Amino acid sequence: MTSETSSVATALALPIPKPRPKAPTVTQVRYLRKGSVCGVNAIRGQSLKAIPGRISGCGIQKPVQITELAGVRLSTPAVVDCATAKALHSWIEKGAKPTFGRLGGGIAQLDVAASYACRTRNNRPGAKISEHGRGRAIDISAVRLENGTRMTVLKGWNDPVQGQLLRKLHRAACGSFGTVLGPDSDVYHRDHFHFDTARYRSGSYCR
C-alpha cells in the first residue's frame, strides 16, 4: 500500500480487508459465461430486442441490459450498446479498481443515475439528441466499497479525502470514453459523472 493510499485509508477509517479468494476454476469460468454479453465473459447481463426511438435520432439497434462488470455490480440494470458496455468494463478494470485497490475491500458497486433515455441533451428543448438517446451513455452518481462506504459525486467531489479518489476516477475515464463530464463541467453534472462513447477527431472531451 502506498503512502497516499495509506493516508486516505486512515482518513476514511477503512479496515484493511482479508486476502481475496482464489481465482475461479476452469469449471467456474465456463459457468460464468452463461449470462455474459458483448462477447466479454466479465460483462454480465442480457441482450435485448432493438429499441426504436420515439423521436428521430433515438434508439438502439443492438441493446444490452448490463448488471455487473468485472465483478462490480450496478445499482440498477443499465441499457446501453456494446461499445459503451465495453468502455465501462475497461474503465473499471484500468481505472476504478486501481484507484481503490484494497481500500475498504475494493470497489463493489456503481450507483447508476441514468442509461438509455430518448431525450435531448440536458433535456433542453430544441437541443441535439443526447448520447443517452442512442444508448451510448451512462451516468454514475456514487461508488460503494465492499465494507459499505459510499462516496457520492455530489457530496464527495469537494471533500478533501473522497475528492482525491473521485477525481482519479474522472481522469481515468478519459480515453475509454469519448466524453467525460463531472461537477466542474456545468451545473447539470454537479451530482454525477457522465460517460459516453461519442468520438471526436481531437480526441476525448474531458471536463
What does this structure look like?
The protein is α+β, with helices and mostly antiparallel strands and 207 residues long. The chain has one domain. The protein contains five helices and twelve strands. The strands form two sheets. Strands 1, 2, 5, 6, 7, 8, 9, 10, 11 and 12 form a ten-stranded mixed sheet that branches. Strands 3-4 form a two-stranded antiparallel ribbon. α3 packs antiparallel against α5. The longest helix has 19 residues, at 82-100. Residues 23-32 have low confidence and may be disordered.
Q: Could you write a compact summary of the structure shown?
A:
With 207 residues, the chain is α+β, with helices and mostly antiparallel strands. Helix content is 25%, strand content 28%. Strands 1, 2, 5, 6, 7, 8, 9, 10, 11 and 12 form a ten-stranded mixed sheet that branches. The protein has a two-stranded antiparallel ribbon with strand order 3-4.
Ends distance:
29 Å
Q: Which structural class fits the helix and strand makeup?
A: alpha+beta
Low-confidence stretches: 23-32
Compressed to H and E, one letter per element, the order equals HHEEEEEEHEEEHHEEE
Query: Number of helical segments?
Result: 5
